[in-house]
Write a sequence for this structure.
DNA sequence: AAAGAATCGAACCGATCGGTTCGATGTTGC
DNA sequence: GCAACATCGAACCGATCGGTTCGATTCTTT
């Protein structure tokens, strides 16, 4: 049970926020909602559950969010923001293609197979049939953006002559899926009920890089031989 | 609205079934339930919805199934039975490795990205957090079995010298994911809201086979050059 | 046609749902 | 300390939920 006094204060507020404008209170609601939606999914989660979990009165929650769906969408938006920044940053760091792809793949696999992200996927996928735009937006602002960044990186390597790829978009999809081969699908279906160990991720991503370079590497500076 | 008179009779019944034992009535309930669960997911689907959709009285449904969950699990069991038989049969048909993998990959991609299977995945994934054994069982009787059959096939090709693979299990995961690269994930998140065209599947699977053989083919009879 | 039994469907039950109301309480600024 | 206002939490609303009851209807067998 969350004690409002424990909510970290980002900094001293200059004045008392208007009703529904307190960022700390808003965050408190979202934190509670995240727990409940993650555990029960959208439909089975009740606003009474969220009231209890967040420690915020239901009438206050309705000051901050217009409806259960509004709250859910705000939570999805927040979750998406946090997924991709660091992963794609790996593509901007120096190194051979093998090194860069290895780091990207590891970071990707670790993040996407983490407990929070798996829960988020389950929650979103669970409502996608009824609310396809939610699934679409989640994908577009998450996986899609990461894939686009990778494609751009591949285009640069093609221009530099280190890779030879006829279809860069498909190659980007391929590398993403190879990096999570045997991991994500089993995670999301609870066939693997814990986060993968580093060794498992290494095994998968190293093999992905090797396969990728065997197929697309030109042998000029891609660094495949250094695996 | 389903008219019981339209229910196809498998054959003339020799005697009147006892209450709850009529296969036609049972199928009618499951058909209606499939529609409703697919559209709304488990939690938002109501038994009243299923009554209306199936055209079977609610009290009769409760003669056949003990609860909403019982009905859902029966439906999942039925869905699983239908997923894998034909796909894995592709592995038993003659042809070079490239041909066999191509056919398997195409069949896999077409099936897994079909409307019914995408809906089933969404429904199952949506409840997996709360009922992990359902997700696990769905995966185990579906994807897992297909993966095992592929792994066995790969082992045979390794023994025959057409493939050289250090980690056959991981290679099987890789081929499965490559066959659906850019397809399944976008489908399940509604980023692609229709079934992939044959040309799209061919593009993906042909590239998967090429990549796979570039990495693991020995050049002895795998048939990669014929792509 | 009569008997037996499966099924139907309206009504019901207690519980919960999303959302609303409003007096009481707590917090902040002056 | 007081006034203003954010928040609280109990109570409420109409609706729906999963599941049950039971007389009426339908179907099959003799």
């Amino acid at each position: 049970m969350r004690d409002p006094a424990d909510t970290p204060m980002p900094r001293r507020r200059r004045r008392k926020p208007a009703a529904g404008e307190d960022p700390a209170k808003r965050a408190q609601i979202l934190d509670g909602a995240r727990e409940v939606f993650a555990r029960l999914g959208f439909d089975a989660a009740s606003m009474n559950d969220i009231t209890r979990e967040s420690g915020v009165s239901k009438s206050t929650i309705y000051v901050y969010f217009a409806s259960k769906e509004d709250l859910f969408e705000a939570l999805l938006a927040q979750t998406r923001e946090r997924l991709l920044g660091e992963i794609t940053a790996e593509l901007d760091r120096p190194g051979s293609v093998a090194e860069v792809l290895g780091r990207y793949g590891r970071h990707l696999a670790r993040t996407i197979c983490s407990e929070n992200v798996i829960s988020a996927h389950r929650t979103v996928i669970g409502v996608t049939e009824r609310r396809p735009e939610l699934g679409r937006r989640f994908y577009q602002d998450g996986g899609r953006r990461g894939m686009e960044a990778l494609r751009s990186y591949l285009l640069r390597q093609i221009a530099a002559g280190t890779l030879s790829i006829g279809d860069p978009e498909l190659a980007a999809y391929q590398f993403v899926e190879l990096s999570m081969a045997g991991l994500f699908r089993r995670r999301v279906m609870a066939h693997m009920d814990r986060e993968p160990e580093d060794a498992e991720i290494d095994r998968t991503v190293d093999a992905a890089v090797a396969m990728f370079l065997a197929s697309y590497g030109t042998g000029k500076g891609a660094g495949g031989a250094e695996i």
